[in-house]
Amino acid sequence: MYAEFNAPGFSGRMRGFSLTLSPAMQETMIWTPHSTVATVVENDGRFLLVEETDEGRTVFNQPAGHLDEGETLFEAAVRETLEETAWHVILTDYLGTYVYRAPNDITYVRHCFVALPDSHEPDRMLDEGIIAAHWLDAATILDPGFNARSPLVIKTIQDYLAGRRIPLNSIYHLL
User: Fold this and answer.
1) What is the assigned CATH class of domain 34-168?
2) Where are the domains of the chain?
3) Residue partners of 9: CB distance under 8 A and separation at least 6
4) pLDDT tens column, 99-119
């Protein structure tokens, strides 16, 4: 059984959900990438990464997540690092903007920062889906068999090791 519906610019059926957009509506659709932040945190030659599950497999990623409404990129990077690793960090530099189209056809615009570890809350509960936070050396991360969540994990470490740094004041927030 299907429920038919019609609205300006839309027509379709509910159940199994089939939706047809009118040609006018198709022209006004706006593609929206996911805006995310990530933080490269290095201490004594080791990098802070999270071990997490992604679609049933265990992978490693920098502390990362989505930008929340009304939040600056800086606030998001510090918050996500704390929520995923229990580490408070101090942002020092901007590493760059990385655009990635994932296998699920979602495009991510990742704003990557460099930070120093400040303090740790070892008893803090980590975000859902995070197994643990680890300090790993570059050789482990750059090994071809390393189970990175995406190619951006490797690319951002390579850029960090190459000395890439952009001043934080190159980002302007007007919220």
Assistant:
1) alpha beta
2) 1-30, 34-168
3) 21, 22, 24, 25
4) 999 998 999 999 999 999 999
